[in-house]
Amino acid sequence: MSSSLESPLLLRQGLVLLNAPAVSWLAAALVLPLTLVAWFTVSWASSPLRKYPGPFLAGFTNLWRVAQVQSGSYHLRMKKLHEQYGPVVRIGPNLLDLDYPELIKTIYTTDGKWRKTEFYENNSAMVNGKQTFHMFSTTDQAEHARMKRPVAKYFSLGHVLALEPHMDTVITDLMKNLDDRFVNPKKTCDLGEWVGFYAWDLISSATFSRRFGYMDAGHDFDQTISIADKALDYFSAVGQIPWVDYLLDKNPVMRIGPPNLSNITRISLESLIARMQGKDTNFNPSMPDYLQHFLDSKVAHPELVDDGIIMGYLLVNMLAGADTTAITIRAVFYFCLRHPDTYRRLVAEVRAAGFDRDRPAPYAAARQLPYLEAVVREAMRLHPAVSMPLERYVPAEGLTLPDGRYVPAGAAVGLNAYVVGRNVGVWGEDAEAFRPDRWLQGEGEADEDFKVRLQKMHAADLTFGGGSRICTGRNLALVEVYKIVATLVNRYEIDFEDPNKEWEVLCRWFARQKGLVTKISMRV
Ligand code: HEM
């Protein structure tokens, strides 16, 4: 009895013990969390995306997505979520991940209506206190068109093929390095790493006739490659909550991160200045490069191109053009080595083409090989270099999904090449299988049926994006890929060092791999 009387008394005494300032501190400390909870709850409850399924936390906060990026398995997790929830998954308070390949042509258009989200914007730099974008990172469609127009033609297949002599010198040096370091003497070759050196040296050679020098050094001697990886880690994680970039990178008081791409910037700037002053000793006018094209574009379009824009072109060539190509080449070799029948067939086709074993394979001839094409396409389908959603804002008219549901203007949506590349509606029940034959006409398959099937597959291929923001460098990338695969397959016997060892894939916008360790020997 007494205790029930004492309890309120004790409580009152306790409150008295908590003096007035303490109570106000306690109240103040609770205000922020309570406001946040209230704000999140109201936003969640009032969001027009509430009806779409997805992980509970994802509907409340983009921190959930940061955690998915940090896991390194973003692509696998998204695929699983689609298996669980269906073609539409809400992966952020205002973001839907869609597995409707038929929407690629609706969303990735050339009409400029589907704007990139702010996800892309942290891939920019502060120049004289002003945030400066390049062709990849700008979300302003008019600015993008102004940047792209003067240089688009230099990425056409015709112009890319004029760069083939650059590629041939780099490939010749790659062969020499592989011979001297791994064939004789016989040593284990981390082919994945060497493909990276090749891709970085090639893109710098094609861009400013100067190599980074990774093949000569045999390692990432100035850490540019590992810094580029860290920059992507930052890009992919901070892009989920774009305003955080203004605290970390674009903070005017104290810059916290990401690591500076100082080496790439320095080499680009040095090359630009030397070329403008006519002192670029690396440049051979009979072998044009992108820097020369960009300078020509400044002459042709002085109203659109200045030196800052040229720096943007140079940087984006490096950042978008090296790792993506390396990832694709690694994927081709990985899947071939995992599938000996495929590999044997590829070897037979390449060898029958009669390429000179001591020279880089010419692109025009390599491109004629149907099985090589099928292998490359299949490898890119199963392992697209970019394996996160390409986010866009739904424009004023909204988006009606194939199932009739409506997504209002202002919501963000995206398709992920990794997910749509496994859509069973397009690729069939064996969508997860590496089967290059799916790209070829089947025995007994009528021409018209094959044409329709191929069109359906092409329409679902998001490897290089689509519409006005489609990958500018896709021709360059494919020429590099076809040439190097045909050359290496023709020259070397390549096997896994340990077939039981799996590679590691870390998805941070690019799905980069580690551990394609091989033994290689000269073909007889
Ligand atoms: C196999 C290699 C490559 C793959 C798979 C690839 C993939 C992509 C993808 C998916 C996009 C679209 C991003 C989006 O819409 O959000 C893109 C954009 C871009 N890529 Fe590539 N890329 C490759 C190689 C290259 C190369 C070699 C270059 C340049 C030398 C390059 C330059 C660009 C640029 C400038 C953009 C931005 C285009 C724009 O917004 O107008 N890429 N790439």
UniProtKB/TrEMBL annotation:
Keywords: Heme, Iron, Membrane, Metal-binding, Transmembrane, Transmembrane helix. The keyword Heme applies. The chain crosses the membrane at residues 20-42. Its cofactor is heme. CDD domains: CYP57A1-like (cd11060). One of its GO terms (molecular function) is oxidoreductase activity, acting on paired donors, with incorporation or reduction of molecular oxygen. It holds the Pfam family p450. Heme binds at C471. PANTHER family: CYTOCHROME P450 (PTHR24305), P450, PUTATIVE (EUROFUNG)-RELATED (PTHR24305:SF232). Belongs to the cytochrome P450 family. This is Cytochrome P450.
